[in-house]
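As a warm-up, study this chain.
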Amino acid sequence: MNRTVRRIVIILIILILLPAAFLTINEMVSLNQNEKVIGRIYANQLDAILYSVNQYSEDIMNSWASKIDLFLDEVPKLKAKELPATVDSFYDQLPSLYMVFVADSVNDDKIDFLGWNDENNFISVDYSHFSTEIHNLLEKNQSLVKRLFTYKKSGYRKLEPVETDTSEGEAILLFIEETPQGENRITGIILDPKEFIYRIMSPKIQEIAQQEFVISVFNRAENFQFNSSIDFKVREVQQSKALWIFPNYKIGISLVGQTIDDLVKQRALTNILLIGLLTIVLILGMWIVYKNIKKEVEIAQIKSDFVSNVSHELRTPLSLISMFSETLEMGRVKTEEKKKEYYSIISQEANRLGKIVNSILNFSKMEAGKRQYNIVDSYLNDVAENVYRSYKFHLEHLGFTFSLIKDESIPIIKIDEEAVSEAIVNLVDNAVKYSDNNKEITIRTGKENNNAFVEVEDKGIGIAEKDQKKIFEKFFRVSSGYVHNVKGSGLGLSIVKYIMDAHKGEIRLISKVGEGSKFVVLFPLSKS
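Now compare it with the structure written out below.
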């Protein structure tokens, strides 16, 4: 990595990764606090719902207290024969109401039960055993009764539940009312909590809950639970409060499908995933930008090397042509043999110069998509043999062992003979440049599956695996060791790739450092 690319990487890390890291750390630090706020908001919402249910039950009991007070004022006015039916009708109007009792004071020895007395019992259940229990209950809750009297003096009627020692599971509520004679009396209501919940509270609970919540009223000691969803299984609630009118019962609420903890954890997980995804996107974006910038820097460097190499390649033949032509022009060469040698050098360098120029022009046309191909029926063996004959004398003169192995079974294929010859020539030139001391080159033709191929193999220096994927890129040249010392434009293999793409063929490379390289160009056989 050169200094420019390294500097770009550092800048990208500062501009992208540091803000992402800061955002991640900041979110993680504030996440716990945010979730506590969310949990508190949910808790407040649930509290409001529970308050609504509690308030409804208290409103019902206040309305019952008013009815009871009015009825107690009317009882003395009833005739004896009217009393049983009237009392029964009154109890029927208030479902879950067991009994109403009245006491003048906490120490009142005689507790009056509406609908029952020693002489005439108007209800089906004998509540005489309650007298002693109620008396003890009032004495035990003197402070509460005193507070109720205080409320009444202030013009406010307050209902208060009291703890009961009865084994029947009843609930008792006390309030103070004023008699028509202006005296205050202690009035008690004995209720069946379960029946009250089922018959009175359940419609309101289901109305509030709808499909979003499950509201439950439960007493764990008695293994009782009523759910707004009309199921009877014991549910875990996320928020609960004591039922005002029945302290031994609690009213709780749970979310349908998920608990508050689930919602909090889900939001926390979502935030973490989003932060992680954002970080990954930023890293991916940085990597893409880095790769593009690195590619541009490499291309700029390759172009710079290309200009330098081509300049050198052009300067060398031009210098030789200029030097030998000037020598001949000034008449310094005395013998015909020497003149012939100089003419030969000038001709060779001119051909070399022409090849360089033609290579650049051809590549420019190919890259612009302007090169025209004359695709005709051809014998691939003939094209390979023509290249072999053209190069045989020259390569053997340079000390190469140059051979051609043909597969005579190759059928006619559709190719541009001139372009294919150019591709094979480039591969042979490449083999010559990088053969080093082991000067052996072989051209081989054959068939493979549905393809005909031409193979150019050398025993040269080979190509490292890390460079094999890049050698077909324009201007690319391996920049190490012996390869770097060989002059060239870096366009030869790119031209071969363009030619093979135009023929809908492919090019393969098999190479190992120190053992040589094998380039194979494959042409699809005609379907006919």
